[in-house]
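Human:
Class, as today's exercise, you are to examine the entry below, and be ready to discuss the fold:
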Amino acid sequence: MAPELKLPITSHFTGRLTYRGTDRFRYIKAKFTEMDLVETVKASPFGHFWEAGELTFSGALVHSLLLRKMKVDTEKEDEVWFHVGRNDMRFGRIEFGLITGLPMGSAPTEEEIHAKSNDHLVRTYFEGKSSVQLDSLMIQLERCEDKDDAYKLGLIAFIEGVLVSKEGNVQVWPEMLKFVNDLDFFFKYPWGERAFRKLMETLGKNMQHYKDNVDKKKGKKIAQEAKYTVSGYVPAFQYWAYEAIEKLGKKYAHCNGTKFPVMLVENTEGRRKQDVKATEHCTVIQQSVGGEEVLVSPAQ
């Protein structure tokens, strides 16, 4: 007997998702290329993100899986269970760490962070203001002509804009603008924890809430769908799907041998991941259930 889903199959609905991390990462890469910083960042603990092939965000895949969250006896804040076909699948802290290779664990104390703080960037680019929005950071990164400063601003933009994927009008963590000046300390910070917590907020979304909103709009001439934003490093969830769902992995993301981080996978059939269409993801997931369930294919 299949486990109970949080939202029954008969209540599934279409969704249109927004993830801003991909475009921001593309811009940061271009800026680092312009400033001759690519080899520098590749030599850093974040280097594998630059080495990995581009993975286009698939709202269809993410939405399809969010609809398949299972009910479990004990909810845990660091894991979510999904049911596809006849398989129960867990995504949690371990999976995220293996996929991204980001440092996890306990953060430094406030005293340790304060000891490494330097307000050079704040004074030079933000008029000494303690409150800096992500959009403002991206603007200053674009304007920056100092190579060392561009590198540090770009690292912060990568964390807040890609790994955490905040909204543009949300404040950047003020302390990060200061302790990034000590790169040895900066790279040891458990950024994986920060990105993972934000991603878990996305995976914990109440899909019944979106379903109710769609139902309220029924009867209008325009087809209704749920529109929502996803945050955190959502590509890690997609990489996990390629590992956890056999048909997806075989078709789109075969890895020749064991690699760490797992995100350093190779593609099969000579196809780039960005060539995979949203409808293909939906079709593969539907095939994975062996025809026992009906999946309404979500929109990209």
